[in-house]
Amino acid sequence: MIFNSIDFLIFFCIVVSIYFFIPQKFKWLFLLSAGYFFYGYWKIGYLVFLIVPTILIYFISLKISRTQSKPRRKFFLIFGLISGLGFLVVYKYTDFIGGSLYSLAGLFSPGLKYNPLNLLWPIGISFYSFKLVSYLVDVYNENATPETHLGYFALYVSFFPQLLMGPIDRAVNFIPELKKKVNFDMERVLSGFRLIVWGIFKKMVIADRLAIFVNEMFRDPAHQGLNLIFGAYFYAFQIYCDFSGYSDIAIGISRILGFKSMQNFDFPYFSKSMTQFWNKWHISLSTWLRDYLFLPIAYAVMRPIKTPRLYKIKAETWGYVVGMFVTMFLGGLWHGPAWTLVIWGALHGIYLAVGYTTKKARKKFVKKIKLNKFPILRYCISVFITFNLVSFAWIFFRAESLQEAFRYIKYIQLVFHGKGAAYLLFNLAMTAVFILLEILYKNRDKLPALQRIPAVVKAVGFALFICLIIIFAVDTSNEFIYLQF
Length: 485
Prior knowledge:
By secondary structure, the chain is mainly α. Helix content is 72%, strand content 1%. It folds into three domains: 23-179, no CATH class; 186-265 and 413-484, no CATH class; 269-410, no CATH class. Strand 1 and strand 2 form a beta hairpin.
């Protein structure tokens, strides 16, 4: 069941109506059962891929914490990483790796053909696998105390609002949340409900309506001209509203149940650099990649360099460039077994590396042309450039194949043919309205005028907003984009 389905609505109403009447000491067991039911509802066999790694990581982490020998601790860490990522690698990447190797071998031995196994990976496995890995590494590095209660640890991994698409909350922060006493609080419940409604609006009205235009552009890019540029822009907002909408719903559900989940998006398309973009986009993943991939790789690269510079390049620069490129390359691969996603990740790696290495030169250039005297103009230009770089990379993310991506790029022209002009204008107006509403929603606590509106008027306005969602929603059966990852 997906968040925007009738099945989930019934499930969630049942969970909430029972949850607050259960004694505190049994709440964890009820939520754990709800999580396993929610996951098993997709396919009962998926539970094996969730429960087995959970139990293995739980006991391996306890073993690591009780072992003093460094070699033995490292052995258990490696064994734990294999346990935590084994199902993910086998089920998600076997055909990708096999097909790629056979294609490479085919260059030397024509006629070789790989017969795919067509293994279907369990839904959400990429997200809960990262939870398991971060917990294991934190215990190994002594940044977290291992959880001794198997039930609470299993609940952390299988907490149903986060199970399929995050946020990827860290155990050190979220397990204490699960243990705290929770009582019914109407203000907190209403706050969570508002966030859920906002997330549904972003998904079912904005993302799904933009998808109609975007799908047509990618289906038949020939002779679309300027529409293809708007198609890339609209996809940028489609995937943002789709994924951030899911995150809003997940955070809202957590809030209703009494738990604080981390923020996952923070106005990413208003970023003035690629670094800032990744500090605001899918924050739980970007911080995970930073802490568990980028920093270890960067330090590993810098450690053998015994001099301040290597080939006239600072050791820190070597560490950053290599670490960032490898991290984003693997980050792209994490999204799925496809070369389009690898290219998408590699492009972001190049963006970040170039941005880091040209930082001083760009500052000098800005000062030379006196653009630093016009901070607002400088900010707007930076945001425009960043958004266009991100939108270009999204073409590879959206395309079904590299051929389709290059075909899309090939047909881009600065020529407007007038085809679909009405729908284009509608999407532009809808996107502009959404941006305005997003700004107002994010800053509602800072606007005194909004605070002075009577409660009755707010309630009527909110009811009308829900009615508009029902009227303009496209289809309740449309899955969230990130469910495929």
